[in-house]
Design a protein that fits this description.
By secondary structure, the protein is an alpha/beta fold. The protein has a single domain, classed as Hexapeptide repeat proteins (UDP N-Acetylglucosamine Acyltransferase, domain 1, 3 Solenoid), CATH 2.160.10.10. The chain is about 25% helix and about 25% strand. α2 packs antiparallel against α3. The chain starts with 6 loop residues before the first helix and ends in an 11-residue tail after the last helix. GO terms for molecular function: galactoside O-acetyltransferase activity. It comes from Sphingobacterium wenxiniae. Keywords: Acyltransferase, Repeat, Transferase. This is Acetyltransferase.
Length: about 200
């Protein structure tokens, strides 16, 4: 571990760090204040609400929509691709980078956790934490009440069924679900042609 790194640099790099660092505390407070304004704003003030996220998040594209309430730790570690939509109660603990691709849809009550704590109680009680990045590639759909754990990548075009706990990488072009989340099947060309006609909705919602 590089002792010359700041606590913030350690956090973003995936090194153990103490989260009660003054700079990190102030940055979390700033994010909370901005999100308080965001979540309290009148529903019709979409442009003003989106401007708060443009200022808070690390990267946004031209088209995105997040239904309030929305929560995150810092904001600056979150990158949103184009045509992003998230339904109510999205929570992103962005102690490490969270990169979300284009055309991603997220259902209600989804949580993305980059943050983790030591298994052994002594360092955990002392306040040590770590964080690993999360990547959600293009065209992914994440069902409601899903939890995505630190270090996970979800491959392009894949669908995560509701109620899943994603602890390992999910490949591209599959339907996956469960606790722990596992691949159920591949997405087929027939489904593109038939759209929702033959789709097993219970796999997703």
């Amino acid at each position: 571990m590089d002792k010359t790194k700041s606590t913030k640099e350690k956090m973003i790099a995936g090194d153990p760090y103490l989260a009660m660092d003054k700079i990190l505390f102030d940055e979390r407070q700033h994010a909370k204040m901005e999100l308080f304004k965001y979540n309290s704003m009148e529903p019709t003030k979409i442009k003003a609400r989106n401007q708060i996220l443009k200022n808070l998040l690390g990267k946004t594209a031209s088209t995105f929509f997040i239904e309030p309430p929305f929560r995150c730790d810092y904001g600056y570690n979150i990158e949103l691709g184009d045509n992003f939509y998230a339904n109510y109660n999205l929570t992103i603990l962005d102690c490490a980078p969270v990169k979300i691709g284009n055309n991603v849809m997220i259902a209600p009550n989804v949580s993305l956790f980059t943050a983790g704590h030591p298994v052994h109680p002594e360092p955990r009680i002392a306040g040590w934490e770590y964080a690993f990045p999360i990547v959600i590639e293009d065209n992914v759909w994440i069902g409601g009440n899903t939890v995505i754990n630190p270090g996970v990548t979800i491959g392009k075009n894949s669908v995560i069924g509701s109620g899943s706990v994603v602890t390992k990488d999910i490949p591209a072009n599959v339907v996956a679900a469960g606790n722990p989340c596992r691949v159920i099947r591949s997405i087929t060309e027939e489904e593109r042609l038939n759209c929702a006609k033959n789709q097993k909705i219970e796999e997703i919602r």
